[in-house]
């Protein structure tokens, strides 16, 4: 009994000493407006969203910036607790991780030079397409083995090569693509009518309680209008 009591006291002390539980959130700050660097700080839609979720569920949030294709391995290796990275829910990813409810709908589009006559993905059988390693757009382009793909680590690097004419197009998620086209002269978007994609937060399998907490926090964020505020802040 005494032993139990001292364990209880120790636990109580450590909780009050160390405060709230911290969730380590992995992202890849190369995907504006969802996550990007601003004056050496990681900011964006996803960052505000997860900080609000942390506030609602009473947990501290610490952001860790990793490469996009390193995010799910880091989650499985318990180096991070969550992934918030504009990540699309796919059947393949679901084999390895669980997802929260979705919080954003996107599609894949092509970024092309303004004067380009390219009209669909298959035109890249005779042109060079920039893809970003591990992104859903990269996987989509891989379905046609005849497409000539050049893989980049970040969208910004692909945009540079598109401008210099090394590649003739880039496949990318719609929201970041729109941002790049807005901020770069001489580019346009081509909608290729691909299926909708849903972004959600990825968690290690077997964290049902945390999934539930996050899902109800997302509901609250939508209900209270905070979600609309974020849309206004990042999509104008
Ligand atoms: N939505 C895309 C994917 O999940 C790209 C996400 C990202 O680059 N952050 O692959």
How is the topology of this model organized?
Blueprint: H1 2-18, E1 22-27, E2 30-31, E3 35-38, E4 41-43, H2 45-57, E5 60-65, H3 71-76, E6 82-83, H4 91-94, E7 97-99, E8 104-106, E9 108-113, E10 128-132, H5 136-142, E11 148-152, H6 155-163, E12 169-173, H7 174-183, E13 187-191, E14 197-199, E15 202-204, H8 208-223, H9 226-234
Parallel strand pairs: 1-5, 1-6, 10-11, 10-12
Antiparallel strand pairs: 2-3, 3-4, 6-15, 7-15, 8-14, 9-12, 9-13
Glutamine binds at residues 28, 31, 68, 85-88, 135-136, 173.
Describe the protein:
- The chain is of the alpha/beta class and 236 residues long.
- The protein folds into two domains: 2-105 and 198-235, D-Maltodextrin-Binding Protein, domain 2 (3-Layer(aba) Sandwich), CATH 3.40.190; 108-191, D-Maltodextrin-Binding Protein, domain 2 (3-Layer(aba) Sandwich), CATH 3.40.190.10.
- It is built from nine helices and 15 strands.
- Helix 2 (45-57) crosses helix 8.
- The radius of gyration is 20 Å and the shape is elongated.
- It starts with a helix and ends with a helix.
- The mean pLDDT is 94.
- Glutamine binds at residues 28, 31, 68, 85-88, 135-136, 173.
- CATH arch. level architecture of the largest domain: 3-Layer(aba) Sandwich
Q: What Rg is obtained from the alpha carbons, in whole angstroms?
A: 20 Å
**How much helix, percentage-wise, in residues?**
25-40%
* Biggest sheet features: 5 strands, mixed
Low-pLDDT residue spans: none
Q: Report the strand count.
A: 15
Helix-strand string? HEEEEHEHEHEEEEHEHEHEEEHH
At the fourth level of CATH, the homologous superfamily of the largest domain is Periplasmic binding protein-like II
Count of domain modules: 2
Q: CATH class of the largest domain, please?
A: Alpha Beta
Output the structural class: alpha/beta
How are the strands of the biggest sheet laid out side by side?
5-1-6-15-7
Strand % is 25-35%
Number of helices: 9
Give the rounded overall mean pLDDT: 94
CATH topology call of the largest domain: D-Maltodextrin-Binding Protein, domain 2
Net shape = elongated
């Amino acid at each position: 009994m005494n032993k139990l009591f001292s364990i209880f006291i120790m636990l109580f002390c450590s909780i009050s000493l160390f405060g709230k539980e911290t969730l380590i959130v992995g992202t890849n700050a190369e995907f504006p407006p969802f996550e990007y660097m601003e004056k050496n700080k990681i900011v964006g839609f996803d960052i505000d969203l997860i900080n609000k979720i942390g506030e609602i569920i009473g947990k501290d949030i610490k952001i860790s910036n990793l490469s996009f294709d390193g995010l799910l391995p880091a989650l499985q290796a318990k180096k991070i607790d969550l992934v918030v990275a504009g990540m699309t829910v796919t059947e393949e990813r679901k084999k390895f991780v669980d997802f929260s409810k979705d919080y954003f709908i996107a599609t894949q589009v092509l970024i092309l030079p303004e004067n380009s006559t390219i009209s669909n993905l298959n035109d890249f059988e005779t042109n060079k397409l920039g893809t970003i390693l591990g992104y859903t757009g990269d996987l989509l382009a891989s379905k046609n083995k005849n497409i000539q793909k050049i893989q980049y680590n970040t969208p910004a690097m692909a945009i540079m090569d598109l401008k210099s004419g090394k590649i003739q197009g880039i496949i990318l998620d719609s929201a970041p693509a729109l941002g790049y086209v807005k901020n770069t002269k001489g580019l346009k978007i081509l909608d290729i009518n691909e299926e909708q994609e849903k972004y959600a937060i990825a968690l290690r399998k077997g964290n049902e309680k945390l999934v539930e907490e996050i899902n109800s926090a997302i509901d609250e964020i939508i209900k209270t209008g905070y979600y609309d505020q974020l849309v206004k802040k990042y999509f104008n």
